[in-house]
Structure prediction request, 337 residues.
Amino acid sequence: MKEINRNKKTENEKAPILYLVVPCFNEEEVIEKSAGIMLKKLQSLEKQKVISKDSKVFFVNDGSKDATKEILISLVEKNREFAVLNFTTNYGHQNAIYAGMITAKDYADIVVTIDADLQQDIEALDRFIAAYQAGNDVVYGVRNDRNTDGAFKKFTATMYYRFMHLLGCKIISNSADYRLLSKKALNILAEYKESNLFLRGLIPSIGLNSDIVYFDVKEREAGSSKYTFSKMANLAIDGITSFSIVPLHLICITGFIIVALSGIMLVVSLVEWAQGKNVPGYTTLLVVMLIATGLIMLSLGIIGEYIAKIYTEVKGRPRYTIDSIIWNESTKNGKKK
Ligand code: UDP
Ligand code: MG
Prediction:
């Protein structure tokens, strides 16, 4: 990490305002308990003067279809440390944390994103803030191990990070969306206009001072994972196609090799034909045809993925639509800084 020349005394002398951004999608079973634990942690940090008393737990209700919204609203009514942003419908985890962060940056000095199920150890917050006070604008949460994941998820995750590195993406292995960003980092992030968001890959590329905090991952307290297989696969594909055009190059190279090889095959078979050799060759033909068709289909698929990306970018639709932002009475719409 680089040496930093920031005047800590003037900038950070006052305890920073922290907004803990919590994406929630159908979390009625766990949200009340999680909110209680988050509030306790926030209050203890406030007491120690590590963070300002204006800090908040900022829920983003990602179009939940169960009672999550009602529970969140009643929490906000009871406590000034809570606020909730409601989407009009489900836009997905990445958009939910993005919306939470971008909205929170107008009120907060630092934002930490954490999952609603509290699988990520909230006690690590102290270390996140300490790393910020030491002059880092980005603090990544990295999981200690993957013991709570099944063998399949563990394997695919490892392979995925390797593949992303191979493609040249600066993603930090096993980093979660448990992360601290300073106001400065958020202002830069807001400049990225792409609608295909892959925050884990994007944030390392903005190039600010950063540090890593290791944390433990627990089992989900209640409810089930809201990340379905298809949501996970979409996130993985988004990551690849938003950060690398290497797959498109690979297609070109493969195509070139195949064309070169078939040129040789053509010459060989013409020579054999001229010599009057009768090659049975049925199997060879079949194998070559199958491989070629497979490669063509795959290549078209990859190109299609990129075209789909261009299509969604060109439309320029909003990433999400906000239905309402609800603050506690005493907060009076938060305090914009
Ligand atoms: N989530 C969300 N929108 C979605 C799916 C999930 O906001 O469409 C939230 C969810 O409420 C939770 C976080 O994203 O706070 C992580 O989801 P989950 O715990 O289900 O994922 P897992 O830990 O199984 O990867
Ligand atoms: Mg979880």
